[in-house]
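Q: Is it fine to ask for two folds in a single conversation?
A: Yes, each is treated on its own. Send the first.
Q: Here.
A: Result:
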Amino acid sequence: MEIDNDVLHWLANNPTQKFEMKIGETACDVEGFELSYSETAVSRPTIRGGVYFSDKMEFKIKVRVANDISKILSKTMLGPNTDFEKIQFLTLLKQNGIKKNLRILANLVNYVQRSSGLELNLVVMGTESF
């Protein structure tokens, strides 16, 4: 699946967009959605020593949800599973007077449980307009 860099850069600069998150058949509202474009951390030492970032850039999402979906999240992470289940973020995009539905597919990197809900960190794997 392709990533539409232009749309994601636009979303990163327009943080008021509302999203719905879907994991399998479960849907929940997103309370906070932050999109950034940054270097990918590497998991092994590099030749230069002390430099632990690759030359690859990727879009990352930080999301806050109030629902307790921690039982569902175990299906989306590598470890207990052999494959990641993609998490979907759905929104109606209004860009330059044109409305279109947007689906962002992401893999869960980790999550933290806070008193206000869950905070999820994800990596974008693809986008789809429909």
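Q: Second one now.
A: Result:
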Amino acid sequence: MARPKLPEIEKIQNRVRKRYPGSICVQDSFGQYYIQWNEENLNDTFLLDNTDTELSAWSQASITAKHEQHINRTHPLKQMLSEEKKQQNKERINIRIQKL
């Protein structure tokens, strides 16, 4: 049997909560919506404005999560660390081979 389809907002909420567990939608004093995670407005991460509807706030947070994941995956420091780790592994293997 096929699973019942979730409403659009629940799908987006699940996607955002995978990256930011415990995130909630909050309405500010101006009637604008934003997603809060660990007492932090996610829109501040990428300098985005708060939105008029709850659905658009969740959609914006989903895009923010996607961009953050992409930045973390392609960040130059991460690539430098992986190169450094490869070099350490090569040295470790060379030392092990020389002992034999």
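Q: Anything structural to flag on that second result?
A: Two points. The beta strands are 24-27, 33-37, 40-41. The longest helix spans residues 76-99.
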